[in-house]
Amino acid sequence: MILFLNIVTFTLVAYLQSSLLARFDIFGLMPNLALILITAFSFHRKTYMAYIFAFVYGLVLDSISGGPFGIHIATFMLIVFACSLLSEETRSTVSTMVSTVVILVASAVFYLSFWIILSWQSKNFAFSGILFVLGEILVTTGVFVVTFPYLKKFFLWEEAVEARK
Amino acid sequence: MKKISFLIFFSIIIIIFSLLFFKSKGSFSGIDSGIGRIFAPVGAVFSNATSGVKDFFSNIGNIGNLQKENKELRTRVNGLESENARMSVGAKENEALKRELKFARDSGFETISANISFFDPTNIRETITINRGSNDGVRTNMVATSEGFLIGKVTDVYPSTAKILLITDPLSALPAMCTSVNATGLVQGQVGMGIVMNQIPQDIELKKGEVIVTSGLGGEYPKGLIIGKVENITKKNNSIFQSASLRPLIDFKSLERVQLIKQ
Fold this sequence. Notes:
The structure holds 2 protein chains of 2 kinds. Chain A is an all-alpha fold. Chain A has one domain (about 1-165): Arp2/3 complex 21 kDa subunit ARPC3. Chain A contains 6 helices and no strands. The longest helix of chain A is centred in the last third of the chain and has 38 residues, at about 125-165. The relative contact order of chain A is 0.15. The relative contact order of chain B is 0.11. Chain B is built from 3 helices and 12 strands; from the N terminus they run H-H-H-E-E-E-E-E-E-E-E-E-E-E-E. Chain B is α+β, with helices and mostly antiparallel strands.
């Protein structure tokens, strides 16, 4: 049940990210819902499960995206690793502050490495790109701060339902 | 006792007749207006309130009918609204199809139409996935247009889908020229910042609003496909080239259908 719900949630978010949200950006910026979901998921699920989801979800997004291939898988795996270090004992009580720092660092790693690779490939290190990347990092972190309490409730509710069975 | 009752009855009759007599003579007009002035505001409040109550009670009987009528009207309004929305979407689609047809007829290109399945989820890369692939005749490097404007080219082809690299992607570069002056350059995408035309010779006098089209150099893109209009021009004294940021004539975020040119 819990696995099924998680698969549905991840699929919906992937659709949302690559269809609906892509059309409704905020001044050209768009929050990365996949990063947000993986971070919240990693804080509230068993580490091995988070690694499996991170890998499969990363693979799916890398194949939809124009690349560089593997950037989603690598970032998601790093997020799971960081979350497993930070929340081994206190998964359900992880604070918004700690999780915000994680998403901030994760989105910075994701977008900056993306920008560096693309700039190197196109041989065009435009400074305007940095501003855009910073905007993306801030929008993703902002949306995470707003949605994290709800995602936390959702994942804890799922766990409670499973425990009752 | 009977006498007293009789007297009271007669007194009342006399008082009533006297009042009627004096009233007809206009003797009570001052008293009337005073009473009216004092009680009128309160009366109005009560009148309104009771009229509401009256309406309420008279409507209670009709509530069943009103609810039914309301429900019917709501259903009709919803139906008309959805029909209206469908018609406006249909009209928009019709306009787009007309433009596409006009482009195919005027240019003489044979095209394959496709719908967009996905946008790139990262917002840094500018790629789209379409619902046509090698089974439908799509090949790598086919040029993609929408409503007659250049949008990109096919980079990856699968049996039932294909990926298009948009001209706004940072890894996209294509030779272009200005329609009014003899200026050539290279149109490149920028991370989150649209498209820029680089390598334009300094001595060329570019103006805002000038239309930029593909130059056809290299044979990758056919000549004359519209890319966008000049928005800003950047000139540096110590550089041999100038650059211009371009505004695409189509909104890439609201793309729905694309045409692939068979070459």
